[in-house]
Amino acid sequence: MKETTISDTASRRPAPAARGGRPRRRKLTFDRVTFFLAFLGVPLAIFVLFVLYPFVQAIFWAMTDWRGFSPDYEFVGLDNFTKMFQDDVFMKALRNIAILAVCVPLVTLTLALGVAVAVTLGGPSRGPVRGIKGASFYRIVSFFPYVVPAIIVGLVWAQMYDPNAGLVNGILTGLGLDGFDKFAWLGETASAMPSLMFVIVWGLVGFYAVLFIAAIKGVPAELYEAARIDGAGRLRMTLSVTLPSIRDTVQTGYIYLGIAALDSFVYVQAMLPGGGPNNSTLTISQRLFNVAFAKQQFGLATAMGVVLAVVTLVFAALVFLVNRLTGGGEGEGRKKAPGAKARRGAVKGGAR
């Protein structure tokens, strides 16, 4: 029998990395090639075909005077963008979506976080930290508005805001507030935008409440127990334990809500198809729709779509940047995470 020596064992080990810490390249085998093609090549091809190519095509059509129903067009360069930013109606729509992108996510996430904390941590103040009784019922009730399609939500609330026979004025009048008799919530410049934002928040807050509940469930219970032993109340635990632990979830929710608010086409078109009094609720997507299908200026409408896409990308980048500057991000978490030696030292210290 052949004896296995140390040199033979060492020869079968993987070759060490080259000097300088750079690992040696692995040979391309059939398995590696098929793996990259299946799990990287196919998704990348789909992304290029259905995302990048249409976006580049939209930029091209935005520089033409295409009418939409004819193969004839002329290249006009940046004239559509110049005309667009000189349009007072478009600039009003741009300001409106900026207000929506700031207010809707902030209010929605605040309410959703309050509901999630109450459901998961609002139980008895003694004993283990747990949620309130009937938490499943409250999750279902809060999630119900999100199940209803947005177009139905908009149409229903448009009827509820009706100044003559709407439920909102009926309830307020029944409570003794006679000043709201036949008040046009969607017909006044001062109340149209807040009324619209209320409906959007009402329709979306349930989904993000359930999302935050799931995220809070993943926070280790030991953190809450330690905070309670130190004398922290529910508000302090929310600010010092819950929010830092679900920071990435909040960031993702803010981006999704901001994108939804920047569009808001369904809600606005269902409740205020004309853009509201003095265009107080007009959005870029609504202006784009009217320019394309009412005026048949598809080149100009495509330019508006390109601007809306750029605004959306800038919004997402700003959210990531603010999160990074305020101490968020996975890199910061890895830097602050204690190493193995520190954890072992803590365990030994606790054992003593």
TrEMBL record:
Residues 336-352 have a biased composition (Basic residues). GO terms for biological process: transmembrane transport. It comes from the Bacteria. Keywords: Cell membrane, Membrane, Transmembrane, Transmembrane helix, Transport. Residues 1-23, 329-352 are annotated as: Disordered. InterPro entries: ABC_transporter_permease (IPR051393), MetI-like (IPR000515), MetI-like_sf (IPR035906). It is found in: Cell membrane. It holds the Pfam family BPD_transp_1. This is Sugar ABC transporter permease. The lineage of its organism: Bacteria, Bacillati, Actinomycetota, Actinomycetes, Kitasatosporales.
